[in-house]
Design a protein that fits this description.
By secondary structure, the chain is mainly α. The chain folds into two domains: 2-226 and 315-352, no CATH class; 377-463, no CATH class. The protein has 21 helices and four strands. Strands 2-1-3-4 form a four-stranded mixed sheet. Helix 18 crosses helix 19 (395-403).
């Protein structure tokens, strides 16, 4: 009964995510792997320490693109399936950590849908977080289930390491796994079996060195360059507490964060509650890979979310132990009422985000449709110029190459070109296109003669169109 309840609950809240389209980042991500062979992607996943960008995401995008092209539904169905798998994995994680069926059920309800994770449910571009969570919790559960029966055999240790590598190949936040294996060993087993910690720690060292020192490393990019400071650490954690516990923006400052950590630690130690102590380390350390690059709450917290949900249920369970035992039927009633109450809140709140989500995706989808309506045939490696387009970045290049399934297609955007092409260069393009009255049409390039200044011709043509051109 409980699995059906959770699936229905999640589908009511996020089921319409199956029907959304592509976001702008999807085109960039697809283009990142466009033209990569299966062998290149397989090798990149084996060489997990290389600076190849999130190769497991490349397997997802390339596989779906190979048979679905730019049809968004298969992408959405695959991600929705993975989201349901992750709910099941988190339930298993809660069950193994807490050894309590009721705590696991409540934690699953709290974590299976979170208002701050709306982007994860509706954007294909969050596949990196989704896949990372899948293999992160597969690896953690493999460790926990074996540890419950004693130590890890060589085959189970190999499985944990293999699953961990796949999590790393999905997203960098997976590097926290060895830390929590160590924390779990220390709290629950007094460091009696450290082989999994050493094995995953060695993999992490190789991974971090390769990612940081290799060519075109993420840390060399401004968006991923860490800035280590206590202020950034505390500010980030303040935003995580706000996000996880649905607190108003700006309601938690750095001193509130320190006070929360101190009170929770004192409570865990005073009650000698191992699970709460484990959760204390979780909320303190799970965000280390993102806090120093300025990632505040929201979808960046999808992988750590389970630990916060487990903390809530662990504290509540510990408080309730001071009172007479509650009959099982009343526990089930409380679970159903909690699900309905939280679900009603989420259902109301998510509608604040949906207009922005749909409008952002509509532009990309309508552009794909306009290319389809234009019916333009282009040879392999053709040269195309867009005199104008509705985007501010390179999206039009990505969409065109993906629509024609031709990474060798040379696409220029007039708004990005300086100097403007000469008359002879204009005639060298296989197609010169423009957006006009919401349609993609071919521009009258044949009117450009040797005696006409192409800059003036382009500027006059662009001035005659709305900016940005509507779709």
């Amino acid at each position: 009964m409980f699995p059906i309840l959770v699936v229905v609950y999640f589908c009511v809240l996020a089921g319409d995510a199956l029907l959304v389209s592509f976001a702008a980042d999807d085109m960039m991500n697809l283009a990142c792997y466009h033209g990569r062979t299966a062998w290149e992607l397989a090798l990149a996943n084996l060489r997990f320490y290389s600076t190849f960008y999130r190769p497991l995401g490349g397997v997802f995008y390339s596989t779906l693109y190979s048979f679905a092209g730019l049809n968004p539904l298969p992408y959405r169905a695959a991600i929705f399936f993975l989201l349901l798998v992750n709910i099941r994995l988190c339930y298993r994680f809660f069950r193994l950590c807490s050894a309590s069926l009721q705590q696991a059920r409540f934690a699953t309800v709290f974590s299976c849908y979170h208002g701050a994770m709306v982007v994860v449910y509706y954007f294909n571009s969050q596949i990196y977080d989704v896949l990372c969570a899948t293999f992160y919790y597969l690896a953690f559960n493999a460790y926990l289930s074996a540890r419950e029966k004693g130590g890890l055999s060589l085959s189970r240790l190999s499985a944990v390491c293999g699953l961990y590598i796949l999590a790393l190949n999905a997203k960098e936040i997976a590097v926290t796994l060895p830390v929590f294996l160590l924390v779990h060993e220390g709290i629950f087993h007094r460091f009696r079996h450290l082989r999994p910690v050493f094995a995953t720690g060695a993999l992490t060292s190789v991974y971090v060195l390769g990612k940081c020192l290799g060519p075109q490393s993420l840390t060399s990019m401004e968006a991923y360059h860490p800035r280590f400071s206590l202020d950034m650490f505390l500010a980030g954690h303040a935003s995580y507490l706000q996000t996880m516990f649905y607190l108003p923006a700006g309601s938690v400052d750095q001193w509130d964060t320190i006070l929360f950590w101190a009170v929770l630690l004192v409570y865990a130690l005073a009650r000698q509650n191992q699970l709460i102590l484990f959760c204390w380390f979780w909320i303190l350390l799970s965000s280390l890979p993102i806090v120093f690059i300025g990632r505040m709450g929201g979808p960046a917290m999808y992988v750590p979310l389970a630990g916060y949900a487990m903390l809530v249920t662990a504290v509540c369970a510990d408080v309730l132990r001071r009172f007479p035992a509650i009959a099982l039927r009343w526990q089930h009633a409380a679970l159903i009422l909690t699900t309905l109450a939280i679900g009603a809140y989420h259902y109301k709140e998510k509608h604040h985000y949906l207009p922005a989500i749909h409008s952002g995706q509509a532009l990309t989808w309508r552009t794909i449709q306009q290319l389809n309506n234009a019916g333009l045939q282009l040879p392999k490696g053709a040269r195309v110029l867009f005199l104008n387009d509705p985007f501010t970045d390179w999206d039009m290049v990505f969409i065109t190459q993906l629509y024609y399934n031709d990474p060798s297609l040379h696409v220029d955007l007039a708004r990005k070109m300086e100097p403007k092409p000469t008359a002879e260069q204009l005639r060298d393009y296989d197609a010169v296109l423009q957006f006009e009255a919401g349609r993609i049409v071919q521009a009258p390039t044949r009117t450009v003669t040797r005696g006409l200044d192409p800059r003036a011709w382009l500027e006059a043509l662009e001035e005659s169109m709305p900016a940005p051109p509507p779709l």
